[in-house]
Amino acid sequence: MHDVIVVGAGPAGSQTAASLAQRGYTVLVLEEHPQIGVPTNCSGLIGAEAFERFDLPRDSVIRGFNSATFFSPKGGSATVGADRVMAYVVRRCEFDQTMAQRALACGASYLLRVRCVGLEQHKDHVTVTAVQRGPEDGEARMTFRARSVVLATGIRYGLLRGLGLKRPSAFLQAAQAEASMEGVDGVEVYLGRDVAPGSFAWAIPADPVARVGVCNGAGAVEHLRRFLQHPSIASRLRQPVTQIKRKAIPIANICRSFRDRILLVGDAAGQVKVTTGGGISYGILCGDIAAATLDRAFRLGDLSERVLGEYERRWRQEIGVELRVGSFFRRVGGMLSDEQIDRLIRAYHDSDLPELVRRCADFERHRKFILALCRSNIFFQLVWNYFRRRSLS
Predict the structure, then answer these.
(1) CA triplet 159, 164, 166: central angle to 5 degrees?
(2) What is the torsional sign of CA 299, 305, 306, 311?
(3) pLDDT for 285-297, tens place per residue?
(4) What is the CA radius of gyration of the chain?
(5) How far is 287 from 187, CA to CA, in rounded Å?
(6) Residue 99 near residue 17 (C-beta atoms within 8 A)
(7) The model's pTM
(8) What CATH number labels 171-249?
(9) Could you confirm whether domain 2-65+86-169+254-319 is CATH 3.50.50.60?
């Protein structure tokens, strides 16, 4: 009988495991893949705030960034910067492994090649049914018991059905490739209908390669193939890109992230930045909240929904408004035409936007900046013109 079983060894799962093990609880982490951090498809950008707040391991950090250059559909550009490092790009596989090593050092245990196929809630524990795949593809059915379970399963939602929980209602598609590419010295963000309708594409230096990707509502792989032929990208490729990875990203959190003796963290709960699709920092934050909530529940001797509901109240208090404002901005930004995006980018240095960025920009928490941007004269005019044209058409 374990105190807690964590299903999934990504950053959210390992942060939860480390926080609980530090408090003296017996924690077992089950990971379905044979190697932690593999496979992965991620830009690897993590806000500096998360490293400082949770003292995250820095062994996997490639470099830090204090600016990003935005490119409009018609060739305009604007470099948006700060006077401090805002984010770090990491080797994602190594980052996941160092997070797991930290949890192990705190006293957590890990089992790999173990795929959870069922949960059964009882009065005083949860039974986890799993299948372990051996090195020669043989399978063995296994059963574990724990006083509570944390689901950090990413975008795998099969276990939710038996709990009466629904998966997130909205997703983006992301596609990314690692490319041998010249001249990627900082974060590059590309906007426009041809590049990624209603979203964006990127190129990020991750020595010795660049990570080039597209985040889109649908058809991300095809959009990435077209983006790789974009003149500003194709002219810098040293060799053709042969492998593209894709993944789904939840951009709507689930209605409920708890049950008796069970909590959901990270992508499993839809705890993802709606504006960019980034989920590492929010997952780590919510994993820490989950551990604190379980600690209180254990001390009270009550792991019912009545007590564990505090988890959802706390994480929504931390990032709930961020998610709602992000959803609003994604809808509003998706209305802008290429001409309007181009005008916004070209007007950046001739407006109050640089000062607004200086005062409000935050890599992980976008609410303050979004609300200030929406009140700015230039953005208000762009949106007002959109609705005026709609009313006249």
Answers:
(1) 75
(2) positive
(3) 999 999 999 999 9
(4) 22
(5) 28
(6) no
(7) 0.93
(8) 3.30.9.10
(9) yes
**pLDDT tens digit string along 105-164?**
999 999 999 999 999 999 999 999 999 987 776 789 999 999 999 999 999 999 998 898
| Token pair belonging to 321 | 């408004």
Is residue 284 within 8 A of residue 12, CB to CB? The reply is yes
Q: Where are the domains of the chain?
A: 2-65+86-169+254-319, 171-249, 327-392
Give the chain's length: 393
Lookup: tokens for 242: 């042969």
